[in-house]
Amino acid sequence: DVTGPAKGYILEAKLEKGRGIVATFISQHGRLAIGDYFVCGATGGRVTSLINSEGKRVTEVGPSIPVQIAGFDQMPEVGEFFEVVSKAAYLTERAV
């Protein structure tokens, strides 16, 4: 399903010089775009950049396409469920 917010899993995560925490993500459903807020296990954030498997910057990605995401608050766990949420839901989650 390509409509709605992205939901999927983290494949790997690392700290990159100049970009901060970067994680490889693959979506099972929905679209992920720059500026989206997300929660991922005990962490979350806002997508600041997306880089596809060819090393090119993209503005959005659909299901089944691996992409590197920057914008995490903390290092996510590999295999963690990732979900795009509204800004209000993100702020509520971070307040807890």
Write the layout of secondary structure elements.
Elements: E1 7-16, E2 20-29, E3 32-33, E4 37-40, E5 43-52, E6 57-58, E7 60-61, E8 67-72, E9 81-85, H1 87-95
Antiparallel strand pairs: 1-2, 1-9, 2-8, 3-7, 4-5, 4-9, 5-6, 5-8
Largest sheet features: 6 strands, antiparallel, barrel
Q: Over all CA atoms, what is the radius of gyration?
A: 12 Å
Proportion of residues in extended strands = over 45%
Spatial order of strands in the largest sheet: 1-2-8-5-4-9
Number of helical segments with 4 or more residues: 1
- Low-pLDDT stretches are none
Count of beta strands: 9
**SS-based class:** mainly beta
Bulk shape: globular
Helix content: under 10%
N-C termini distance? 31 Å
Mean of residue pLDDT values: 93
Q: Topology as H/E string?
A: EEEEEEEEEH
Can you put this structure into words, describing what you see?
The chain has 1 helix and 9 strands. The chain is mostly beta strands and 96 residues long. Strands 1-2-8-5-4-9 form a 6-stranded antiparallel barrel. A two-stranded antiparallel sheet has the order 3-7. A hairpin with a 4-residue loop joins strand 5 and strand 6 (57-58). The longest helix is centred in the C-terminal third of the chain and has 9 residues, at 87-95.
Short structural summary:
The protein has 96 residues and is mostly beta strands. The chain is built from one helix and nine strands, in the order βββββββββα.
Which key phrases capture this entry?
single chain; 96 residues; mainly beta; 6-stranded antiparallel barrel; two-stranded antiparallel sheet; globular
